[in-house]
Known about the structure:
This protein has helices at 2-28, 34-74. With 75 residues, it is mainly α.
Amino acid sequence: MKEFLLKLKNVFKNSVEFLKDTRKELHNVSWPGRREVTGTTVVVIFTVFFFGFFLFLVDQVAGTAINYILRLASK
């Protein structure tokens, strides 16, 4: 039981140290400004829609081609 409590104490102590170090590191982070965040968000949204549309077209073409090949094979 004594060993368990000692381990528990060490886990708690290490957790507190980790949180202190994390908070200290967060003060060293260079956070982007509102304009930069807005710009990168717009780029990400545009990219997601572009690739979504592109993959939709590729899926449609591939599906049509596969259906054509299967129709030829079943004749």
